[in-house]
Amino acid sequence: MFDLKPISTGDLILAVQTAAIISGFFFSWRALKDSSRNAEAQLKIAQAQMFNQLVVQGRELQYKYMELYNSPDKSPEAERNRDLFLGTMWGYHASCFEVSRVLELPASVKKLFDHEVKAMLSQAEPRKKWEKISEMYSKEFHQYLSSLQGI
Known about the structure:
By secondary structure, this protein is mainly α. The protein has a domain at 46-147. It has five helices and no strands. The chain has helices at residues 9-69, 76-102, 107-122, 124-133, 139-147. Helix 1 (9-69) runs antiparallel to helix 2 (76-102). The longest helix has 61 residues, at 9-69. It is rod-shaped and about 100 Å long.
């Protein structure tokens, strides 16, 4: 049934090579698994950094909004700056929308974003500016705005 013969040097080398190949597969599998976990962690870090940037930029825009719209200056230059700022605000909201399509943001952030956009659309000046510049934005952003209540 079994033919037992002495183990030769060739047999030992074959066993060592087989063990090396199996251990190589094992370590490759472990490295792949670890890199997958690392990629997931890096994605979460990227999401947190992106969210942080959105918050910082949004806060800076809010300060600029208060500065421009609470100013008693009614000169043509001030009005032009306000108009340019409204275009910047729409660009910021469009970029936030596009980012949210690539990186998953928390539901609370999406809700806050929806509320901000609704608030902008409920005001006459931002709405007029949107009507002037809307052709510069993606179809998806248009669909998003159309899906919000009151539009």
